[in-house]
Design a protein that fits this description.
The structure holds two protein chains of two kinds. By secondary structure, chain A is an all-alpha fold. Chain A has twelve helices and two strands, in the order H-H-E-E-H-H-H-H-H-H-H-H-H-H. In chain A, helix 8 runs antiparallel to helix 9. Chain A is globular. The two termini of chain A are 25 Å apart. The chains are: A mainly alpha, B mainly alpha.
């Protein structure tokens, strides 16, 4: 295997393929940036007549209350991320230590179900509870999915080290908070951060639940983006897409890096 | 719900209560409410149990058409994404240590479905960037000659977008399996026993990746099955994805159409829960 990999020909062709692939992946994002700042781009011209920051200046001038949508999305993400992670920690632990396969099935269900279909079925309940078309109602329904998501992560990535440390802390007379501080946090901190990021991103990117439960009154970034798409307002749609994209890419980069470090860490400890 | 001296049971009970309240209760509500509404027992038009909404939904054949459409488009996207990511990992396993590959995968992974749908639309629509490129090199005289690749009959746009969303996650997962299952060592062993690199790739690495990766493929199929934003942007009016169709029936002005949305909801629930059960029951038990 090594002799095949180290062959100079292959390495050169590999670099060539890599460059082509890299270009193919990055070009659509470049296109997105161009759409967001270009004007006068009718068929068949390949680049906009004018590329400058004026569309962005207009966008940031907040005529469409983008600031409010951004703040709503951000606040929603932080709440869903935090509460979802705390609940998921408890739930994931139950699922991890359960002998029966039912808890695992239950925790996976919202993870795989379509949010919009669940939202439609929960809409009547939200109306009865006077929570439809409200921020709180949307957050509550998002929490069902966030808890499922983080519960799945915790149950799948729960480190045996946390259990061993917990036993040790208890043997030394530690209470519940000592267990959290000295056993759970040190061994699961990367998973906790991953869960927070993923739950917050779920909320940040959610459109199905916000549109159904929020009923048009809860204005988030995704709702704005869809609004621009419906109006065929390509400039602003691309700008909202970029605003949505940036934290998401950063979040996934953090998550995958932490996952790698978590894996290496547990291998070192277990192996 | 008493705690023992070590405080172990109250932890577990807290988890059980949260699982019941935050996950089980809403999911049970979704199933029971959808079922009763589809039977006309609940909802604005609840006038006693009737199967008429189910008959209406299934008799016209439209529902079957939409179910088959959703299943086949999700299936094709999953298979395509699985083949691409498996092929990439098998042919370029060394890329798992490359920082630039990792960054590119994160960029793709971090692209939300709605943004991916928007990008694919901008690339593939008749006035889109690929059509402009084709015109620039003389392959296309006018946008009318461009084949329908979005909002089209064969769901090309949906398949492309769903595949692009799925590939990075599957690739990272296969890279992870490659590392944790120590596939390099098994291939090395196969080489010392006389296998060629191609043989060790297809007869050692591929089955090992498949054995551990099929459950994620099924999970990915389930995600595609419930996809909403991509088919909403890139799909046609008919047939439609189940989630888009459900929302359409639910959001229409004619309230009498709502029970059909719940028929769809029950069908989708049973389909997704059944496949999930198959996936979880066939997965090897954890340590």
């Amino acid at each position: 295997m090594t002799e095949v990999m180290s062959s100079p020909d292959r390495r050169e062709s590999g670099t060539g393929i890599r460059r082509v692939l890299l270009l193919a992946v990055l070009l659509p994002y470049l296109l997105l940036a161009l759409i967001s700042s270009g004007t006068g781009w009718s068929f068949p011209v390949l680049k906009p007549e004018r590329v400058d920051l004026s569309p962005w200046t207009r966008f940031l001038a907040d005529r469409d209350r983008m600031g409010e949508a951004f703040a709503t999305s951000l606040l929603m993400s932080v709440i869903v991320g935090t509460v979802g992670t705390v609940c998921g920690l408890w739930v994931g632990r139950v699922v991890r230590h359960s002998v029966s396969s039912w808890p695992r099935f239950v925790i996976y269900l919202p993870f795989v179900l379509s949010p919009v279909i669940v939202g439609i079925s929960l809409y009547d309940l939200m109306v009865r509870l006077n929570l439809s078309s409200s921020f709180l109602g949307t957050v509550l329904v998002q929490l069902v999915f966030a808890t499922s998501l983080t519960g799945v992560y915790f149950s799948e990535l729960w480190s045996p080290r946390a259990d061993r440390l917990e036993q040790l802390v208890k043997c030394l007379g530690g209470g519940r908070w000592a267990v959290l501080r000295h056993a759970i946090w040190p061994s699961l901190s990367p998973v906790i951060i991953i869960c927070f990021v993923q739950a917050a991103l779920f909320s940040w990117l959610d459109y199905g639940l916000v549109s159904v439960i929020g009923g048009g009154r809860v204005r988030t970034m995704t709702v704005m983006l869809f609004g621009f798409l419906r109006e065929a307002n390509v400039n602003q749609a691309a700008q909202s897409a970029i605003v949505l994209l940036l934290p998401t890419v950063a979040g996934f980069a953090i998550s995958t890096t932490l996952l790698r470090s978590q894996r290496t860490h547990s291998e070192e400890f277990d192996g | 719900m008493r705690a023992d001296r070590n405080g172990k049971y109250d932890w577990l009970w807290t988890g059980r209560v949260l699982l019941g309240l935050l996950v089980l209760a809403p999911v049970a509500w979704v199933l029971i409410y959808s079922l009763l509404s589809s039977l006309g027992v609940l909802g604005s038009f609840g006038r006693g149990a009737t199967f008429s909404h189910w008959f209406v939904a299934f008799q016209s054949g439209v529902l079957w058409q939409n179910i088959l459409y959703t299943l086949s488009v999700s299936g094709v996207s999953t298979l395509l994404a699985g083949a691409l990511s498996l092929g990439f990992v098998l042919s370029r396993a060394e890329e798992r240590n490359s920082r630039s590959t990792h960054l590119v995968l994160c960029l793709l992974l971090g692209t939300p479905s709605v943004v991916m749908g928007f990008i694919v639309y901008q690339l593939l629509n008749p006035g889109g960037y690929l059509a402009r490129l084709a015109h620039a090199i003389g392959l296309l005289a006018s946008p009318d000659h461009w084949p329908a690749l979005v909002n089209d009959r064969w769901a090309v746009g949906i398949i492309v977008a769903q595949t692009l969303v799925s590939v990075p996650l599957l690739t990272l997962y296969f890279f992870n399996i490659w590392e944790t299952a120590r596939i390099d060592r098994f291939r090395q062993l196969a080489h010392t026993l006389g296998a060629t690199p191609t043989q060790s790739r297809w007869q050692v690495a591929c089955p090992m990746l498949w054995k551990q990766g099929w459950s994620l493929l099924l999970l990915n199929f389930l995600f595609n099955l419930g996809s909403y934003e991509i088919p909403l942007l890139l799909g046609r009016q008919s047939p439609q994805f189940l989630s888009v169709l459900t929302q359409r029936h639910f959001g229409q002005f004619d309230l009498a159409d709502r029970p059909v949305a719940f028929v769809l909801s029950v069908v989708y629930f049973i389909l997704a829960a059944g496949l999930l059960w198959v996936m979880l029951s066939r997965r090897p038990a954890r340590d």
